[in-house]
Amino acid sequence: MTAITDSYCVAGNPVAHSRSPWIHARFAQLTGQALSYERTLVALDGFTAFVQNFAAAGGKGCNVTVPFKLQAAELAISASERVRLAGAANTLIFSGSGIHAENTDGLGLVADITRNAGVTINGRDVLLLGAGGAAAGALGSLLEEKPRRIVVVNRTYAKAQALVEQHANIALLHKVELQVIDKQALEADLTQNFDIIINATASSLGGAEVPAPASVLRAGSLAYDMMYGPAAKPFLDWASAHGAVARDGLGMLVEQAAESFALWRGVRPPSAQVLAELRELLQATTAH
Ligand code: ATR
Fold first, then answer.
1. Global pTM?
2. Could you give the count of Cα atoms lying within 13 Å of 192 in the half-sphere of its Cβ?
3. Looking at ligand 1, which residue's alpha carbon is closest to its atom 31?
């Protein structure tokens, strides 16, 4: 007789590169949870139908990645405040009452910075580079940590302005100074520097230069790229060369998965251990 296990998946297009099945399988092993977690390539026009079919077939939930995070937020019957602020969801929970949407990306980022890197966000000065989906997913959670100040800088100023306006109330609530600075103004003003610099742009994918001047770094600043692997390298090399502590987004990936796992299963997995294991695995595979 085969044991019945709850099924989950990550839905995206492309999705072949996703490390989520490995991460969730390891979480399940380490917490003794019986579940399956598949990688599912979904047709670009087939996301809603896929989710409905997966739920009807008994699926318990899914992670959502590019390019479906907006659609995931829209199709849910209920969504968290984080989803509303980000306009995007990366986690769907199927229950008797319907589909609930969550966004654990920002929580994952904050957990990696504060717990794994041991850097306090509370009371500090933060620079957020970018105003696309990745930045939108993170800003609400960063504000909840009550930094002193968050400055958003983006190639397209109007997008940064819209993102900041969207978060104005929550910034007020947490007494955080939330501002947009024009990219040229940032380059001209050498007094603007930060404790934590987060790269949420896709600039390195296109081979463009780092989207900030080195004057934003203080000695010992944390320079964090939400990407990992070769995509993060230009930013991390730039940060290290200027005396900052460079950190890639692998921990964010594992921690956002841990938040999803905890929501689905009611059990918190040992994410720091799984991050260490994944880092070792990736180093071993790139070394050969
Ligand atoms: P994601 O979901 O990864 O955030 P996105 O929503 O397309 O993807 O956003 C990409 C971000 O990277 C945006 O902030 C984008 O700037 P624009 O708003 O001006 O488009 C930024 N970005 C992409 N290529 C860039 C480049 N070459 N230099 C600077 N910023 C870049």
1. 0.96
2. 23
3. 203
